[in-house]
Amino acid sequence: MSNSMELEANIEPSSDEGNTSFLKTLFNGLNAVIGVGILSMPYALASGGWLSLILLLAISGAAGYAGILTKRCMDANPKITTYAEIGEFAFGKFGKTIVSIVLYVDLYLVLTGYLILEGDNLHNLFPEMNIHLHGGINIGGKQSFVMIIAVALLPTVWIDNLNILAYVSATGVLSAVLILGSVVSVGIFDGVGFHNKGELINWKGIPTAMSLFMFSYSANPVFPTLYSSMQKKHHFSKVLIIGFACATICYTAMAIVGYLMFGSTLQSQITLNLPTNTISSKIAIYTAWISPLSKYALMMEPVAATTESWFPKYQKNKGFKIIIRTILVATQVVVAITIPFFGSLMSLVGALLSATASITIPCLCYLKISKKSRRSIEHMFIMLIVVLSLGIVALGTYTSIRSIIKETINRQHRH
């Protein structure tokens, strides 16, 4: 098999490599870390109970530390610019292929999750929506919104210039803060209050909580790109520390506020619990609708670049790129319509792939590249993190597949 046919899941660093300022990189990093995960934080906390906040902090720390290890791997060889190349430097061609496949499937399913999220939120705003086609074909509200959003997103997906996309994605950070502010406002001014005591711990829900927390910190595959484009690379650790600290404060605040407001009645996204008639909730719901739009094209870039690299003859052809990217979006629409349960899909992605891509792979690659003494404290600590990530993978995958099967059976019974 030729090299060009190999998976190369990466975001190409922009042509002005090494020109991005500290502040711009910080915004990009924040946007990568603080994602739609903020909407499922209260549900995750309600699943696991108050003590599961310890897990949130542990996963945040582990993912942040794995980010720093990613930086160290890249420092070891200045030629490394992408996530897949770290895998290659550590484990050869086999490492490159495995890392690429994990990254590709992870991002592909995250993007599909965004479409499902958009369908849910818009259906919540316009419950009457239905599309009637000739021949008596009816397309339900959620499904029709998934299609409309996909068509609206296509032009942003056709842009393959990350400099332009960086400005689009900066709105993601502001939208997360705005959503948090709006939810707090609903609690204070709209008669919802913060009266739910909640449970201390719910063992059954711990795997779900763990997977959703993990999904919310799955930005590691984007870090090599941010690092490559940064002017003063030695400041990248600061970007990671500030980024993860801000994300964790946002996530923890949202989880606590949401759990106090709605307790065990929380749905997979807090926007579905908000009363639809108040201004604060409308702001939260509309902003939640904008948030994935700001990320979709950025996260699509590595998936599209990989798919294009399978056809080296046409890789630089603009028309070919547009066709490939359109097909990718279309296939995601099909997946989004056939698996419309956002919570279960996200916890499955979180369990199976996010932990592998954001924690396990950077740790294993670093151990291989650094050749640290097995007796060193750091070596043992990294091994502990690897064990934690494998635990998330095993437990979370089992429970989320079980809940997807259960939901599918329930839907069939209802029909």
Molecular structure report:
The chain is 72% helix and 1% strand. The chain starts with 21 loop residues before the first helix and ends with a helix. It has a single domain (3-414), classed as Amino acid/polyamine transporter I (Up-down Bundle), CATH 1.20.1740.10. It has 415 residues and is mainly α. Mean pLDDT is 83; it is low at 1-16. The chain has a two-stranded antiparallel ribbon with strand order 1-2. One of its GO terms (biological process) is amino acid transmembrane transport. Residues 19-401 form the Amino acid transporter transmembrane domain. Keywords: Amino-acid transport, Membrane, Transmembrane, Transmembrane helix, Transport. It is a multi-pass membrane protein. InterPro entries: AA_transpt_TM.
Layout: helices, strands, pairs:
Layout: H1 22-33, H2 37-48, H3 53-76, H4 83-125, E1 131-133, E2 137-139, H5 141-158, H6 162-189, H7 206-215, H8 223-229, H9 236-262, H10 279-309, H11 318-338, H12 342-370, H13 377-414
Antiparallel strand pairs: 1-2
Helix pairs in contact: 1-6, 1-9, 2-7, 2-9, 3-7, 3-9, 3-12, 4-5, 4-10, 4-11, 4-12, 5-10, 5-11, 6-9, 6-10, 7-12, 7-13, 12-13
Subcellular location: Membrane
Organism: Spinacia oleracea
GO molecular function, one term: amino acid transmembrane transporter activity
